[in-house]
């Protein structure tokens, strides 16, 4: 596998761009091919079988793009599909859920860890099982927050309504005296300050996007896959694909990435 | 075509059940086959081409179930796909958008009509063009309300947060002095009282689900397709299909239909 091959990153839609942003920060000389499954978003309410099928299709597409490793940036796909696809494909595949869980275990002092995410992520119990595997004594308190994604996508990042919704969702977690909270959905870091405000400064927020990019960096070095070539311009280094209309994706991408995306290609993911 | 063949009704997910509820009320002796595309929900953010493709697949599936007429209960699909599928298929197909637009034109006194819906419905401009076709002097003021669907699906039907969100979305419409407002999304009738409260009693709310079931009744009579046979139990009269996990669908269905659904079948819609 060529060292200067790109990293494949995928998500159900735009949220995974927060992971891309972290990878760009942590390993700025790696090329990236991103796929956002905007035709089939959201994954959070879909079944495990469906998510595994979608993940297989996307990985086959990314393989065709010549990637050297894959990051599942979507929490739901990472929770439901990672064990299956790690067995089925030979290239290194990492996901946000395992990375986030590991850091939460390392961070907590009182052993009480909260997790917020979509219904799919929370119902999968995957964060909890990764945490328990590392620290059987940890207490895990999970809460699905289905309104956070649409609020972020409405651009209501710093908004009294978002704060009230956060208040509703997070009160139960506050009362459970957690000291660490995993933001188990890629959209959530964009309302981190609101979540922190509601939870209070005493609670550590874990951002799996950040942790995953650190793990990716380590993995590439260990496997001898780190890129050692010259870096190009963003236009050449980063390629973006979606499964449906690209306009809204572009607006969102340009609001969170450090440069403006010029072209986004639409592909028919059902073919893969 | 057999008179006692069922009506096919489809939607992107659970919302079309508000249309089913109205059909059950208006024409209680008609059998219904419902398909909810829960694997590919929501349609509101997807492109016209994708929505047409999905609609074709669903109509082919419903044809196989032997339906005598089809109701597109999804506003987005009704807006994007109805002209295309009416040309491609020979059976009668009606959609919520045309029915809703017609009644709004008949209802308004000052000629100022508001429309709320998902981004797909609003951006299609279809309600506006149907209204203009019937009354070129009508003023149409449209507003996308993307948070309403997730709020309804969270069960926040009578809630201060929903009221604040409604206040944000609807203020612009209020200031435009409309006297008629089309609830252009199947979920919205479930927060009708909140919408009415924000808009004030002077504004007539049009529920296309209701208007569509009246139009369907008329159509079946005109075409000689109305069922004249004995009615069965709900279990035999109504069949429900989804494209992904049925549990959440069942909970929602049982909260809005007049009887509890026992079985929901999952099918692979991609095959059609």
From TrEMBL, chains A, B:
InterPro entries: Asp/Glu/hydantoin_racemase (IPR015942), Asp/Glu_race (IPR001920), Asp/Glu_racemase_AS_1 (IPR018187), Asp/Glu_racemase_AS_2 (IPR033134), Glu_race (IPR004391). GO terms for molecular function: glutamate racemase activity. It comes from the Bacteria. Keywords: Cell shape, Cell wall biogenesis/degradation, Isomerase, Peptidoglycan synthesis. Signal peptide: none annotated. Its EC number is 5.1.1.3. Gene3D superfamilies: 3.40.50.1860. Substrate binds at residues 11-12, 43-44, 75-76, 186-187. Pathway: Cell wall biogenesis; peptidoglycan biosynthesis. The keyword Isomerase applies. It is an enzyme of class 5 (isomerase). GO terms for biological process: cell wall organization; peptidoglycan biosynthetic process; regulation of cell shape. The active site is at 74 (proton donor/acceptor), 185 (proton donor/acceptor). It catalyses: L-glutamate = D-glutamate. HAMAP family: Glu_racemase. Belongs to the aspartate/glutamate racemases family. Provides the (R)-glutamate required for cell wall biosynthesis. PANTHER family: GLUTAMATE RACEMASE (PTHR21198). This is Glutamate racemase. It comes from [Clostridium] fimetarium.
